[in-house]
């Protein structure tokens, strides 16, 4: 049964994750910083909404969408602006901007404002003091919002009794019964006509959006492409030896265990006990002091850390000897644990070592010069084939790639490892604008350009006819499955037996399953990033004996879920976890208070939306305006 659930959600899990990210953005956007980056599309400055005495412009909304899209792309690199808008991203950002403007207007009316010094401090904290890095009015708006909402979040305390009950929930186990009604089992038996498919495609265009695809032309080469790098001369080797003479001088380093005593008497007492056979650690511990192990250290290093007198005493002692010495901090008792000596090395002894280092540096410098000359050729107007021919490199083209490095419409195939470091740049550059880059530091270099860009857009119906037919069948079948699910729910609530109800449906369905899971197991699955079957999630949000229906992701079916039993976890009232739960619940309730206050202020201030302007911007960002 669990396998079936995982299969049924697999095809649309990407969409679900993206939508979840959008919801997170909606909650976090108040605290986010909208930068002055260029928008995804060239928006005008027309008014999108009036909020009290404030306005939300098309430019505000465009910039907000651009910033939010970049954040979501950190989790879903292939998401295009078209897909972002189609999933409701524009509406979420607009609602947040309206809330921010309402909070700012409310603050002005109640003398809650952000002064210039506070704005400067916030800009400095964000490292955004460059001109126009973040508009000052944007910072002021967000500061006022923070001042209004923050008090609602703090000081919320959850009663200990509720925290104990909640702790029991964290360890509970639940069992239930699940009926699965796949959409395809309820799909129309008669194939749809062309007109029906065309109408369905037109009304569901956003479901068939393709990600942006790019073809990259490239060639790789290594450091050996640079020929005739001169070998280091004897004079160069001797010069480097003189420059690094201290590195080759005689060296003595020591590892020690030390205790710092406050008085000479205490130091002598420790010294006597150690010489009598007690360990330095034990002697120090008995006197409330701690022994520290250091090194290996050179004499100058030890002198800097303690005092010259301490260093002199330590470096005059033999291995295993204990010495005492005075410093500004107190009296040191030191045991020499190890002595590491290295004789001086002559030029003849290190000549090969220095020659190898110089040869590596020369080749690195030659490669850098080589790459610089390639860049100069590109800047001078040479195209990639011309430069590749001069270098004797064989160019190759990738298949169409998506921004995450996957080969489009080729599951399991990915981009060459050499291309991964330049993929992000390749998806932000213009066509036929060659570049050179380091693919693997010091080992592999790459020259490349983009030869083809296929923007994100709905796929033509004739190219995805099979997908459209499947989507149509799922859509029609899901509606029928929902109706049947509601009938099953009603029958179960009347006390009828589930097996008899399913048999009465008269279709070949997956067997009724009894499922069970503990909440710790549920949390473990979530933390491991494993998809949790929707009925299992629903099971932990139901009352005992209740019956609920739930749609499967992607309209692939409907579930009827019955919660049969709840076994609370055993939690002692003195368990420290209760205090943790109390703090967590207090913080969560504070967040809810803040959200309620935000909504109340927005409702109090009032907002009027320019629906025509919103539609125009939505069409522009999703490409519909250009198509028309």
UniProtKB/TrEMBL annotation:
Domain PpiC: 232-351
Membrane topology: Single-pass type II membrane protein
Domain of life, per lineage: Bacteria
GO cellular component, one term: plasma membrane
SUPFAM superfamilies to which the protein is assigned, alphabetical: FKBP-like, Triger factor/SurA peptide-binding domain-like
Principal location listed in the UniProt entry: membrane
Membrane-spanning segments: none
GO MF term (any one): peptidyl-prolyl cis-trans isomerase activity
UniProt cross-references to Gene3D superfamilies, sorted A to Z: 3.10.50.40
Compartments in which it is found: Cell inner membrane
Pfam family, one: Rotamase_2
Keyword terms of this UniProt record: Cell inner membrane, Cell membrane, Chaperone, Isomerase, Membrane, Transmembrane, Transmembrane helix
Family to which the UniProt record says this protein belongs: Belongs to the PpiD chaperone family.
Protein name, per record: Parvulin-like PPIase
Source organism of the structure: Novosphingobium fluoreni
